[in-house]
Amino acid sequence: MDAYHYQATLLCDECGPNLQREIRAQNRGPMHPADEWMYTSDDYPTGPIPDGGGPADCPQHCDRCGVFLENPINETEEV
Hints:
By secondary structure, the protein is α+β, with helices and mostly antiparallel strands. It is about 15% helix and about 15% strand.
């Protein structure tokens, strides 16, 4: 599943685009949303990011709806 970054959170592939639409409806979105270099994830959700936002030490979930983002889990080595 793809994920989106927004204000230090991860959003699923449904909540991310929905939030982008909400922000644009309030005329607060970037002029060119496809040009992610023109804004930060503090202002507008960036993505999509494949693999649920990438590898992590634990399962990642959407911060809006709670759905599992299907991210890969880092392998830990026995010491």
